[in-house]
What we know:
single chain; 162 residues; alpha/beta; Rossmann fold; five-stranded mixed beta sheet; 29% strand
Amino acid sequence: MAANAPLHVVEDCRGFLRVLSDGTVVRPTPPAAALAEGVPADPSVEWKDAVYDAALGLGLRVYKPAAAAGGGERKLPIVVYYHGGGFCIGSYAWPPFHAGCSRLAVGLGAVVISANYRLAPEHRLPAAIDDAAAVLAWLRDHASTDPWLAEHADVTIVLVAG
Length: 162
């Protein structure tokens, strides 16, 4: 390509992701308010955000049924959920993924952990897989120190989905 050729879109993933002719990746960033508006209040589930890799700016969201708030003898299984998007788009904060994880937590009676991971093409595979493994390491390392996990989660029953 000539050095002075105008930039053009080479790949367009329905506006979620555009790759320009010089290799630049353009991702529109949805405003935080738009993500928050898409998350309906659901009194049957509680959730909180945490960071599992501060250096990479990667976070996760932990869900638990509100009925588990009082604790109890029976601890809940853990479901670690990796959002869809073909390793290229998506976030645990997107309303459809948030709603799905909320339903999993209440419907299964489980603690659900949903995590972000580095996205391609900016971060080629195996970056996302390395991040997925880091989430499991975070769970191992925080099982006894995170209050929700220590009180409600049965770390002997961990299922992976996504």
